[in-house]
């Protein structure tokens, strides 16, 4: 994530950007989104998350272009200037000898560009919020959104950001996401979810509920996600063992509390086994 433009945006700068660019009613939903968005994004401010979504949009757009239009040109396509996502197009300069009619034409074109740019930026922001509300990794959401948008697409250009969260797309993406969780094992690789970080958070809080903030809430939610993901799988005990003993992102006592004696014994038989799967990301 550190190589993506905008991921170093501070909270103060993010606040300035949001006040300048984003509708008040959209800002109001940001706080509730933190408890449901995909785990990798729970420690990002909304602007950082939006830059990340924008970078994934560019990748998804190029993949769709490669598949549906021109495989050779796909890598050169630039559907979005991420570095100027929250910057308006520079105003035109009027030349001293420029006639009024030509100047007005260029001015109208500039106004059109500003409107188009704001529409794209709003589309990126809103699309990111939709993915967050669905609890999906941005890469997965955009892959599904492009897939379903293009199933009924009748235009010469590929979908723009604001065209990737219709009711139909969200409904189909939701169904596909639920099905995909049964065939792929999604979990976070962030250091914030390591058992060591969890133990540090517990020690710091020391039973004081007032100190239970984003980190502990997200860690506990990730544990529940892992336990639920393993629950219905035929190799669930082996996966649990990988999470506990290899990846070390799930506390042993939480697994012990969910299994009966026979199940726990079976789970422990995988303690020295090699990993069952590679990390999703």
Keywords:
2 domains, about 280 residues, mainly alpha
Helical segment tally? 12
Shape: elongated
Q: Estimate what percentage of residues fall within beta strands.
A: under 5%
**Biggest beta sheet summary:** none
Write the SSE topology:
Elements lengths: L10 H11 L2 H4 L2 H4 L12 H23 L31 H35 L3 H14 L15 H17 L11 H11 L8 H18 L4 H11 L5 H7 L2 H8 L13
Helix pairs in contact: 4-5, 4-6, 6-7, 9-10, 10-12
Structural features, described:
This protein is mainly α. The chain folds into two domains: 11-183, no CATH class; 191-268, no CATH class. It starts with 10 loop residues before the first helix and ends in a 13-residue tail after the last helix. The mean pLDDT is 93. It has twelve helices and no strands. Helix 6 packs across helix 7 (167-183), helix 9 runs antiparallel to helix 10 (236-246) and helix 10 (236-246) crosses helix 12 (261-268). 58% of the residues lie in helices and 0% in strands.
């Amino acid at each position: 994530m550190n190589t993506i433009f905008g991921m170093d945006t501070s909270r103060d700068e993010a606040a300035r950007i949001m006040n300048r660019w984003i509708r008040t009613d959209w800002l109001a939903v940001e706080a509730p989104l933190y408890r449901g968005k995909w785990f990798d994004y729970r420690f990002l401010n909304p602007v950082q998350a939006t830059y990340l979504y924008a970078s994934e949009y560019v990748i998804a757009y190029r993949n769709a272009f490669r598949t549906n239009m021109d495989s050779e040109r796909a890598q050169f396509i630039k559907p979005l200037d991420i570095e100027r996502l929250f910057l308006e197009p520079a105003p035109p300069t009027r030349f001293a000898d420029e006639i009024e009619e030509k100047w007005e034409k260029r001015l109208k074109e500039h106004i059109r560009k500003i409107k188009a740019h704001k529409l794209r930026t709003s589309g990126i922001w809103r699309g990111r919020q939709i993915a967050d509300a669905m609890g999906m990794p941005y890469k997965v959401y955009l892959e599904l959104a492009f897939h379903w948008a293009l199933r009924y697409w009748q235009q010469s250009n590929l979908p723009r950001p604001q065209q990737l969260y219709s009711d139909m797309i969200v409904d189909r993406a939701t169904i596909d996401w639920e099905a995909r969780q049964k065939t792929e094992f999604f979990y976070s690789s962030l250091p914030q979810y390591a058992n060591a970080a969890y133990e540090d958070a517990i020690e710091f809080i020391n039973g004081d509920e007032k100190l239970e903030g984003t980190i502990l809430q997200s860690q506990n939610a990730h544990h529940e996600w892992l336990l639920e993901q393993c629950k219905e799988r035929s190799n669930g005990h082996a996966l649990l063992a990988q999470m506990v003993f290899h990846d070390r992102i799930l506390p042993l006592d939480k697994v012990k509390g969910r299994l009966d004696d026979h199940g726990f014994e079976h789970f422990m038989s995988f303690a020295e086994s090699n990993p069952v799967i590679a990390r999703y990301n």
